[in-house]
Amino acid sequence: MRFSLNRKRFKDLSEQEVLALAISSEEDDARIYRGYAETLRAEFPSSAAIFDGMAAEEDGHRQRLIDLHQKRFGDVIPLIRREHVSGYYARRPVWLVENLGLDRIRAEAAAMEQDAEHFYLAAAARTSDADTRKLLGDLAAAEAGHQAKADDLTSKHLDEDSLESEDNRAHRQFILTWVQPGLAGLMDGSVSTLAPIFAVAFATQDTWTTFLVGLAASVGAGISMGFTEAASDDGELSGRGSPVKRGFASGIMTTIGGLGHALPYLITDFWTATTIAFVVVFIELWAIAWIQNKYMDTPFLRAAMQVVLGGALVFAAGVLIGSG
Length: 324
Hints:
324 residues, 2 domains, 13 helices, 2 strands, 78% helix, 1% strand
């Protein structure tokens, strides 16, 4: 709260401070675009060239703003940035957007241009100087027109074949880095924990004990799967992407798969908890089959038969052992 109170409100900024804020914002945006370009350059060179062009556009805007500041206020530009202004639009951390793939980076760039347009319109409305008002209005129009500029850059650097190739590569990378490890984890967590959970359930008919066993099995399996996935392949030769990302995907989905049919045993009535656990198991197995069909091109009926057969065998083993 104290940090927020120490920031200036946008409406309290002087015209010089508004110009200084615009200059620093253009500098930041140019750096962000260049960061996107470097992130994409190795795998998506055509998209990287687009962001290089957009960074150059931001450099041009910054220089026009600096020229106007020198004309009106001199060479010393106040140090004021986004984080110094209350309510001013913020940028998401670059590392976060980078890790979310090509489509997300493209969407984030479009949102950046929209934010900048709104800022320049608000800034232009607050100035009485004709030159400043004209420049800010021109920059608002330029930001609004950046979609057209992006389209021009796209047509220059990204023909249909290149666009399709990059989209296919991004989709394949998403499958290798997130879907495959996550699916393996979900299958392991959902199926491998069936036997111990239901064995304990039918052996003790104690819901709290069953829940504790399920919790331990799920978390233990998640940690094991996560470390195994991360340590098994560094992604350099296979191209499967960051081992950390794959480890998290596998570990988290393994834990979720096991917890799904362990959580119902927080209910004290044994048969109510067991009935709900049965339903959850069915949903988990259906979800696995759906993911296989959607992302791995496995026919749904075949995927469903494989998953249901495997799950039924493990479930039956758990019930038989627990009832013996």
